[in-house]
Amino acid sequence: MIRTARKVSEESSAESGLRSAQTSKHDRARLIHLTVFPEAIRQWTSAMTPADRETLDNHEVDDAYRNLADMFNNYEDVTFQNATIQYKDDAPISPYQARPEMESLAAYCWELNPSDPTRCDRDGAWIRKQWRELRTTLTKIRENFKKSGNQDAENIYDEWTKFSSHFGDVYTYAIAVINWCGMDHFGKALPDDLQIDTGKTDTHKPPKRKASDSIGAMNRARQRKRRKELTSPGSSVSSGDGTPNDISEMLEILEEHEEAQREQKASELQLSALTYLANKGDEEALAAIRKIAFGSK
């Protein structure tokens, strides 16, 4: 019996650990809160700013996601409350009471707990993966919702709930944490005037994209430029080395070249035939060879 009880206990622990390791809506709700957490804004900016090769080689982007994971896992100092319901003494009122104008949101999201310390720790790779999934779906929902015109309703939360509820509770919950205007910068590196980490703005600007200076890249660039010049209507500009760019002119040159090759080949065949006959003692063939060589009989 003791062995059986121990086995049941181990299976229960394993099942509990598996549930904890799986990503839940509570994990995603906490991640949404982390996107607007003041102390995390600079890390999000570093993670989402287009990086140059030096930054990638120095693993600065990985460091940013790793720092975000440390904040995510710090349930003691980094705590969030469900944004759709009211609290008393840091505990949700039971039964739940929705915040003003968020009744429709709370009906779907009242049970979300963005500060559940029983959840397992996450790493930077998890933060990156889950964030990309959230960003992609939320951006799609927002763009479609914006096209519908429902954002001009008297209560935007009611309209958002009707529009987003079929995507899942977390996506409905997002608008309670990230306001409508904030979604304009959702998933993007925040501009300097919106960074609220330390009050200081980051003067670093994303580097402009530079064309590769490898031989292959330079050859492809020249080919693209050449095709563009050849296909542009009425183009007859020289490429700089005296080569014409007009298509009809190019075709004429190719035809002349092919004709010259045919004439040369015919002359070579004729000379070979005359040489053969001259070696056989043919006087006319010998005279023809003398005329080709010396211009006279």
Through-space gap between termini: 124 Å
Number of strand segments: 2
Shape: rod-shaped
SS content category: mainly alpha
Radius of gyration: 37 Å
* Low-pLDDT segments: 12-19, 189-206
Main sheet specs? 2 strands, antiparallel
Mean pLDDT: 75
* Largest sheet strand order: 1-2
In terms of DSSP E residues, the strand content is under 5%
Q: What's the SSE pattern?
A: HHHHHEEHHHHHHH
Give the proportion of residues in helices: 55-70%
Kindly describe this structure:
The chain is mainly α and 297 residues long. It folds into two domains: 21-194, no CATH class; 215-294, no CATH class. Helices cover 57% and strands 1% of the residues. It contains twelve helices and two strands. Strands 1-2 form a two-stranded antiparallel ribbon. The longest helix has 33 residues, at 247-279. It is rod-shaped. The termini are far apart. The model is unreliable at 12-19 and 189-206 (pLDDT under 50).
